[in-house]
## 1
Amino acid sequence: MLDKADVNIDEVIEEYNLAGHIEELDEVGLTVVPQSTLKLNDNWFEQLRDAILRVGEARTGIKFDLDKGPSGPLPGRPSEIGHIILQHMIYEDQVFEKVLTHPVKKVLMTHMLGQDHRLAVSDAWIKWQTPDTWNQEETTGFHVDQNVVPAPWNPNKPHIANMNWCLTNYAREDGALAYVPGSHHEKRFPELGEALPRAVPVEAAAGSLVMFQGGLWHGSYRKTTPGLRVTMLGQHCRPYMLPFQDFKGRIPLEVFEKSQDPEYLRSLVRENETMLKVRPKDDSHVF
Ligand SMILES: [Fe+2]
C-alpha cells in the first residue's frame, strides 16, 4: 500500500517510473533502482565516491585506491574484517546532502516510513578484500536494522529503512549485501545460521540505489576480489524514534541554502520539530 500523505508522491512515481520498485519493497523488502531511473550522470556518483575516499584518508591517514585497496593496515577491527565505516558524513561535503534529498530516495523512503521520517545515520562504507584470517562466509552477520524494536513487527509499516548508494560494481564476489527475499513477512529476527542458506546477493552496477526495509534479514558476503567496494548508506527512522546519530542544530545554514529540497532536509534532521508548549497555569489536574 502506498502512503499518499504527500501530494507530490504520485507525480514523482510517474515521472521516475517507480511503481514496480514500490511493489518490490512491499513484497520482497528490497529494491535496486538503476542509474538510468535515477536520472543521474556518472560524474554525480564519482564525486560522491571520491569524497568518501578523501574523508577516509583524512580520518585514518591511509590512502584508499579503488583498484588496489588500502595503502596500509588499519588498527583494530577494520584490518580483522576488511572494512571501515565512516560516520557523520553529512558534515563533510554538500555531496552527502544530495544523497538525502534526491526525489527517488525521498519517495521510496516516504513509502516505507511515512511523513516526517528522520535521518538516523549518515555513513560511508569502504570494504576491501576480506583477509584470509576471517573464516566466515559473511563479513556482516545476518540481522535486521530495526532490532532496537521488539518483534513481532508489521511488515507493511517498518520502523526503520535503509539506503545503499553503490559507488562501485556490486556482486557476491565483491562483498555485496546478502539478503533473504521476503523475510520481513516473518516479523522476527533470524535464528543463528538460518538466513545464510536462504540468502541471495544484491547484484547492482555502480550508480544504483538499493533501498530496503528494516525488517529484512540481511548481512554481507566476504569480498574475494581485489580493490574497493564503496557504498554510501543511511538508515532512516520513524519520528517516534531517536536517530542513532543526532544532527539537530549541528548542520550549517549554508547546507540548507544549497539543498535542492531544504524543507525535506530540515525534516530529516529534526529542524522542523516545534518546542513543547508550556502548560497553562490553570491546568492543575495535570501532574
Ligand atoms: Fe544492516
Note: The pocket of fe (ii) ion is lined by residues 143, 145, 218 (CB under 6 Å).
## 2
Amino acid sequence: MNQPPIDRISLVGRGRLGSALAQAFESAGIALDTDAPVVLLAVPDAAIAEAAAPYAEAAAPYADRTVGHTSGATPISVLPEGSFGLHPLQTFAGGEGPEAFRGIGAAIGGDTGVARELALALGMVPFEIADRDRPAYHAAASIASNFLVTLQAAAEQAGAGVVAREHLLPLVRTTVENWGHRGPDALTGPVARGDEDTVAAQRAALPSELTDLFDAMVERTKALA
Ligand SMILES: NC(=O)c1ccc[n+]([C@@H]2O[C@H](COP(=O)([O-])OP(=O)(O)OC[C@H]3O[C@@H](n4cnc5c(N)ncnc54)[C@H](OP(=O)(O)O)[C@@H]3O)[C@@H](O)[C@H]2O)c1
C-alpha cells in the first residue's frame, strides 16, 4: 500500500543546517509541526542520541514517530529501530535558503523510504550509505570541504601582503571545476612538471609553520602526477 506523501515534519534544531532546512521544507510544502509523525534531528552529533532517546518510548507523545538525523558521521544505529539518516552533502555556514539543497547529493540510510522522499522533496539527489561506510564517507566530505578551507587559508598566509584572497579565488574556482571534470588530469604546476628548483624556491619563501604542510602536499602531488 502506498504511503501518503509527507506533508508535515518536526524539525529539531535551528542551527546552520536546521535554519536552511526549515525554509526548504516550508518552500516544498512540508509544514513544520512539532507533532508531526516524522521527526528530523538537526542537532550536533554529540546531542543526537540524547535528543532521540524519548522516541524509543512506547508512550505518547513519542510513540509511532519515525526519527532521522542529519549527521554524516553518526551511524543510524544510535536511533530507535526504523529510523533514517539524511545527510545533505553540502557545507552550510549560515544564511542559506531553500535553493541550497537543489541538485546536491544526500546520503541516506536506515529507513530509506522516508529519507528518499524528503531528499527528493528538497531537490536533492539521494544515494545510500551503509553505517559501516560512514567513517570513509565522512572523511571524504571533510577532506573535500573542511581541509580545502584549511589549504586556502595556508595559500593566503603564504602570499600575505603579496596576493589578495580575491585574486586567488578565480584560481581556486577553476581548479575545482577542472578537477570535477577531469579528476587528477586537472593537475598543473611545478611539481607536475618536475621543476624541482621552482619547488625549492617556493619552500624557502614560506613561513616555517607551513613547511610540513607544503612537504606533505608536494609528496602527495608527486604521487598523483
Ligand atoms: N553545517 C553543515 O554544514 C552541515 C552539513 C551537513 C550536515 N550537518 C549536520 O547537521 C547537524 C547540525 O549541524 P549544524 O552545523 O547545523 O550545528 P549547529 O549550527 O551547532 O546547530 C545545532 C542546533 O541544535 C540545537 N541543539 C543542540 N543540542 C540540542 C538538543 N539536545 N536538543 C535539541 N536541540 C539541540 C542548537 O540549539 P542551541 O544553539 O540553542 O544550543 C542548534 O540550534 C549535525 O549532525 C551536522 O553533522 C551539518
Note: The domain at 8-130 is CATH 3.40.50.720 (Rossmann fold).
